[in-house]
Amino acid sequence: MDSQRLHTKDYHTNFNTEGYLSSYMFFEMIPSFDILLKEMISIFVQNKERLGHSHALEFGGGPALYSSFLLAQYVDSIHFTDYTPSNLKAVEQWISREEDAHDWSELFETILQEYKQQSGDRTAELSKWEERLRDALKKGGLLICGDVNAHNCPILDEKTNIDQYDIILSSLCLEDACLTQDVYKATVKRLYALLKHGGFILLTHGRNQSFYTVIDKCFFALPVNEQNARGSNGRSKFYRHSCQGCGKAT
Questions:
Q1: Dihedral of CA 124/127/131/137: which sign?
Q2: Which residues on neighbouring strands pair with residue 195, listed in sequence order?
């Protein structure tokens, strides 16, 4: 691992949440972000009946809410976690409608229009979707998740969380959090253990990415591709290049 690339505890001191949200343009900075959104929406639309359950976990959501915006339309509550306190604060500001909260409406509207096109549902409204997201986050709660590279990681290793979630989603997170391929594989298995029987896990990754930048800081990323992800759980099924989804057998 390149010692110049920031990782783990560096997120507490060097990750600029406000700068990330104000200048990190997803469509410009993340290759094929539009394809990623379309694929995620496709998975949700195609698995609508299977995903209509109560309790979800978004693991490592960062300050970004685009994944939970979609997820909230299928579940009653979302347990939203991240490693960096400032990221959770930004989410709380949006939930509370604080004046300086980040405005997600433009990206949310893009997601909503794509959903309408794929699902044929023309009744969906931005304001109602946003309210459903706020309600789901309030019910599930926001919580700091620990370091996945550590032996004991809150959320992942609490016995009370085993078999608790109908859906687990982690988007563009694990490749940045896991320092080795072994940790990546172990983390996927730990997440899998939290699923209820018949539950569903959805992971999205950057492909073969070794770093990413926020303002003037360079952060470590673990190169992950289809082969790495497939090897993390023999029961996984790939829906697309950019997304991995697998179900827990009943």
A1: positive
A2: 165
Mean local confidence (pLDDT), 27-56: 80
- Residue 161's pLDDT is 84
Strands of 165-171's sheet in order across: 142-144, 77-82, 55-58, 165-171, 195-204, 243-247, 237-238
pLDDT at 69 over 60: yes
Gap between the Cα atoms of 9 and 20, Å rounded: 17
The crossing angle, in degrees rounded to 10, of helices 126-140 and 105-119 is 110
160: its two tokens: 């009370």
What pLDDT, on the 0 to 100 scale, is given for residue 67?
Answer: 94
Q: Is the pLDDT of residue 169 over 70?
A: yes
Q: Which residue has the higher pLDDT, 2 or 189?
A: 189
The residues with which 247 forms a beta bridge, in sequence order, are 200
CA torsion angle for 184, 136, 162, 220 (degrees, to 10)? Answer: 10
Quote the DSSP letter at residue 6: B
Question: What's the pLDDT score for residue 77?
Answer: 96
**Alpha-carbon distance values, 184 to 16, 119, 158 (Å):** 25, 33, 19
Q: Which of 247, 239, 216 is nearest to 38 (CA)?
A: 239
Residue 91's nearest CA partner among 177, 23, 17 is 17
- Please name the residues in contact with 1: beta carbons below 8 A apart, sequence gap of 6 or more: 7, 179, 220
Q: Provide mean pLDDT across the span 60-67.
A: 92
Least confident of 18-27, 96-105, 202-211, 237-246: 237-246
- Residue 88: both structure tokens together: 């959770």
